[in-house]
Specification:
alpha+beta, 4-stranded antiparallel beta sheet, 4 helices, 46% helix, globular
Length: 147
Amino acid sequence: MKMELIQPFINSADAVLAQGLQCSTAIGSLSMEGRIIIDLDPETAVRVASKMAGADLPESDLLVKETACELANQIIGNAITALNDQGFHFRVHPPVMHTSEEGIKSSEDTEALVMCFETPVGSVFMNIALRYNRRRQADLSAAAGRS
């Protein structure tokens, strides 16, 4: 896994969490796995949303889900902007909310870095996996050979 591709996500998550929660963060556990997720337990999600909204929110409030998606948007958007500024080209899709203990399925060839950001309102986990589009890379190589 190339750190030059991962570091912008780490920097972005740290900056967005610090600004949104008005606190400093510390990186906790680090491991390798196979999925990309911004992961908040329900109680932490409520506390994060309340802090970012500047008001107490009920646990079932739609604003909690919207705030979690906005947190993901900010982290991913900042990181992708930094990577694109370095000459990389990424396609970004809107975040998808998953609320199950199980999570979503991944392929066997996907490797991911899992980090924990410790904040005053709870642990925020970020799971980063980048997979090259091999078909696209082959097309580019073939095109370069023809010119």
